[in-house]
Amino acid sequence: MKYISTRGQSPALSFTEILLGGLAPDGGLYLPEQYPQLSDADLTRLRGMNYRDLAFSILSLLADDIPPADLRAIVDKTYRADVYAYARPEQNAEDITPTLKLEDNLYLLSLSNGPTLAFKDMAMQLLGNLFEYVLAKKGETTNILGATSGDTGSAAEYAMRGKKGVKVFMLSPHKKMSRFQTAQMFSLQDENIFNIAVNGVFDDAQDIVKAVSNDAAFKARNKIGAVNSINWARVAAQVVYYFKGYFAVTRSNTEKVSFAVPSGNFGNVCAGHVARMMGLPIDKLVVATNENDVLDEFFKTGVYRPRGSANTYHTSSPSMDISKASNFERFVFDLTGRDAAKVRALWSKVDQGGAFDLNEDGLFAQVADYGFVSGSSNHAARMQTIRETQAKYGVTIDTHTADGLKVALQVREPAIPMLVLETALPVKFEDAIQEALGHKPERPASLQGLEDLPQRFEVMDADVQAIKQFIVDHTAD
Ligand SMILES: Cc1ncc(COP(=O)(O)O)c(C=O)c1O
Ligand SMILES: N[C@@H](CCOP(=O)(O)O)C(=O)O
Description:
This protein is α/β, with parallel strands linked by helices.
């Protein structure tokens, strides 16, 4: 299996060759040259597997240059009940991503039972172990540069803290994450972790990561690695739980299900798209946004119009305060029939601050063939959904999951099971839950007092040169 760039001007490489990096050298994103195809017999074989067996079966199709015994060991070390231990009392932590039935044909797919209480742990714990394995094999080190709106950062730092040969430089939007998210990251005192709070929004931080990734000489000299979902391995790891969710709520491969995905950078739902392209019987992929509704606008109109920092709102589902959805390029590459020249032309407009309209050449008409539908939410709807979910099902959900559920309820078809991806646990957004329910969500004993711990972070402007210098200063031997 080789990986190619959406911009078509980089050499095709294997999984381990692209593992540590982010963007391809031509500025594009990697995708498999061809998606592996699963037959009905394959699906029957996968049905009933536990998470580890399923993850190994699917990842061995995508990471086929890792010897099977090594991949097996990495997967077994990653997907353990004691790592994904925050399952609800009525759930079995051994399931790793258990489903929670709300009513007939309506489920939560619990993805946030890992160490940092967000779905990012599902991929990031694997990346931590994969990075360690590949770096040891190559005798190399890496300096990870990442951007976070609240969850990628802590998931990456918990996965990489104390790992030999790895330093993490994590950019976050200053004062725009929840108190819990901020404390989760900034209270880490590990010497290999550097938190940089950037004056700006998440997109400013993500732009810096991309600018550094596009500077080939700096990237090579300073061994820059990536853990954002521009890194293919993040998406690959997330493909697995779409299969797990599908098998959990169906009895035969003739049944279809839909997934509602709270979306920002389009990484999570892109993994659903990949699962569908591999042959998983998915009916709809529901893209749910918050007030930052660039993706909803696209799926409704065909116009992709990323917004600038001034028009990116700070909301009560802050991890989705994103206006430039990195992984959207992966989908558009498939939509154009993998026409890299077309993708280059579209993104040359985006990279200059512009927009594009896929109605112009008839491409938008084909979007429905990929199962995408969309909707958006806002603060009032989020509060109401949290209240109604508590009242009707006795389940507390976080603000991002509430956006997903709100849109799912609008678009679902009664006969088709709908799985709403639970992308974070409510305790991460205590103030919003307090506002919605009049009381705080339950907090595990191990996380009491998190916000009172001493914090270590730098505040910097969104200045690429200054960030590069910071990395150089903190990696000199
Ligand atoms: C809690 C939460 N929900 C949803 C999202 C959106 O996921 P994606 O960026 O993969 O679309 C994120 C972060 O991106 C998140 O942290
Ligand atoms: N929501 C994310 C931001 C997007 O990051 P990605 O790594 O998934 O691209 C966050 O919480 O940091």
